[in-house]
Amino acid sequence: MASLDFYCMSGSPPCRTVSMVAAAIGVELNKKFVNLDADEHLKPEFLKMNPEHTVPTVDDNGFYLWESRAIIGYLVDQYAKDDTLYPKDAKKRALVNQRLFFDLSTLYGAFSDYYYPVMFYGAQKFDPEKFKKLEQAFEFLNTFLEGKEWVAGASMTIADYTIVSSVSAADAVGFGYKRYPNVHAWFERAKKAIKSYDELYHPDAMMFKKWYDEAGAGDKK
């Protein structure tokens, strides 16, 4: 079994994505938790690996990589027994990539733009215009899933994993994703397809609720 050093933090949706995909393809992650509050990500040894000092970061025998969507693509290409999760066919892969980029720039992008200023950066209230963008992102996802079981093609791919992380974080802080019936049905299906989701990954997602509550975010809407 392949083993990589995995620099991460509990509760992080991108870190959760990497954990889920690695488990799905049988890659062992040697987890090294990074305390951002103690500036461990700014230490010289970490900056040598990742000048952007972000988590998740992986160290595969001296090959350093960060950005969760890049990491999961690499893991499948390098270590998976087949290309089911990240097809090599150009058109199939292009669709998966489009959904990965949609998550990064639109879905998770809108989620973080709306929630993070209050939860982590001291903003005193939420921005209703940013909430509209988050709702629009979920509307797009709902449209993508019309008549489909998975977000990118006929079977589950790495795009489903990264979007599961985004939707689970939104769910944890009370965003009403069930208003979008295709998203709701897909999320239930995906949680069943991911081995030990409830035991291993739901508690990690609920870290967001803890951070949300500690920031008093519920009183700032």
TrEMBL record:
InterPro entries cross-referenced by the UniProt entry? Glutathione-S-Trfase_C-like (IPR010987), Glutathione-S-Trfase_C_sf (IPR036282), Glutathione_S-Trfase (IPR040079), Glutathione_S-Trfase_N (IPR004045), GST_C (IPR004046), Thioredoxin-like_sf (IPR036249)
Tell me which Gene3D superfamilies the record gives.
1.20.1050.10, Glutaredoxin
> Has keyword Transferase?
yes
Main EC class the enzyme belongs to: transferase
Residues annotated as domain GST C-terminal: 89-207
PROSITE patterns per record: GST_CTER, GST_NTER
Question: Has keyword rRNA-binding?
Answer: no
- EC assignment: the record states 2.5.1.18
How does this protein assemble? Answer: Homodimer.
In Swiss-Prot or TrEMBL terms, this protein is called Glutathione-S transferase delta1
Organism equals Xenocatantops brachycerus
Which lineage ranks, top first, belong to the organism behind this chain?
Answer: Eukaryota, Metazoa, Ecdysozoa, Arthropoda, Hexapoda
